[in-house]
């Protein structure tokens, strides 16, 4: 599954609510952020490898409400959701190993 770009607050909240017990990985990033640009191909590649995980990408400038609600202070920030609740967070530089370990730990 390739990630979905979600920049509307209502759509973002609906995605979290409807995911149920499936793991959801949300990448909070921005277009001007260097580490976000470096993480982009990793996030895309991993999203294609895990068909049983939902991947979302949120541009913090476009969806400021979600960024504020989840207290995003560093970019990129990856929040892992399951059963309508945040279960893990990872901030900063991303490697394939770091992302896959977090996914496997939280599935």
From TrEMBL:
Q: Which residues form the Thioredoxin domain?
A: 1-107
Site feature Contributes to redox potential value, where: 34-35
Disulfide cysteine pairs (residue numbers): 33-36
**CDD domains annotated for this entry?**
TRX_family
The active-site annotation reads 33 (nucleophile), 36 (nucleophile)
Which PROSITE patterns does its entry note? THIOREDOXIN_2
SUPFAM superfamilies, A to Z: Thioredoxin-like
Tell me which residues are marked as the site Deprotonates C-terminal active site Cys.
27
Q: Which UniProt keywords apply?
A: Disulfide bond, Redox-active center
A Gene Ontology molecular function term of the record: protein-disulfide reductase activity
Q: Which Gene3D superfamilies match?
A: Glutaredoxin
Sorted alphabetically, which InterPro entries does this protein's record hold?
Answer: Thioredoxin, Thioredoxin-like_sf, Thioredoxin_domain
Q: Write down the PANTHER family for this protein, in alphabetical order.
A: THIOREDOXIN-LIKE PROTEIN 1
Report the NCBIfam families cross-referenced here.
Answer: thioredoxin
Family from the record: Belongs to the thioredoxin family.
**What is the recorded name of this protein?**
Thioredoxin
Q: Source species, please? A: Galendromus occidentalis (western predatory mite)
